[in-house]
Amino acid sequence: MGEGHKDEIVYGINPVREALRSKRRAFELFIAEQAGEQRLARIVALAEEAGVSVRRRQRQDLARLCGSEHHQGVVLRTEAFRYAAFEEILAACREHAGNAGLILLLDGIQDPHNLGALVRTAACAGAQGVIIPRDRAVGVTPAAEKAAAGATATVPIAQVTNVVHAIDELKHAGFWVFGATATAESSLYDQDLTGNVVLVVGSEGEGIRPLVQQHCDVLYAIPLLGGVASLNASVAGGISLFEAVRQRVSSARK
């Protein structure tokens, strides 16, 4: 289920700026002719500091390169993020001898800032990996890397073609799968999260897809005492991960 390494095209002022600040290797920066010098000066300076070639191109050439007219006059060719293979995460859990495994599975996160925040929290919680779908979900973009604050280099992230298949493989490997849904009758705080655990968090709008819910062993809700009807996806994931941490630390002390 792993993914090969390919170059990636990043375009737009903010995405290109974040890509140049990230740990990814950048190859070429393309600037539109007649583009406003002042607006792009910082991006050009970042590229030059990193030893990245800066080339001038017609705006229509940039549109063809990135497949969009909304490039804001700046396109960057960079190496793609290196995802782990799904099997690597399972191997990391097996090597975690004497301790229970903890994996975060994200079913359709759309916002790169949420993805980055969840990866960062998973790393802080000691998770052995984060699993995301290959389709209909955001990947590890420069914006996600920025939000992760370096955690994308410390916790393996795997893309899978079929989330349900991945869940079945995790169950076969001895994991219990817990899905967070706002409508579940069972509370997060009633779950035993001290064993081999997969925590599933759904998309910002619709949550965990029905078929994925059906394959979870347990569906739980985080009790809300007021405010709006649901939590932000990254907050829900953070609460769930650190409830697992709390239980594991408490169990280890007994």
Which structural category do the helix and sheet elements fall into?
Answer: alpha/beta
Class of the largest domain in CATH?
Alpha Beta
Question: What is the helix tally?
Answer: 9
The gross shape turns out to be elongated
Q: Write the CATH homologous superfamily of the largest domain.
A: SPOUT methyltransferase, trefoil knot domain
How many domains is the backbone divided into? 2
Radius of gyration: 20 Å
Structure description:
By secondary structure, the chain is of the alpha/beta class. It folds into 2 domains: about 5-80, 2-Layer Sandwich (60s Ribosomal Protein L30, Chain: A); about 85-254, Alpha/beta knot. Helices cover about 40% and strands about 20% of the residues. The protein contains 9 helices and 10 strands. The protein has a 6-stranded parallel sheet, sandwiched between helices.
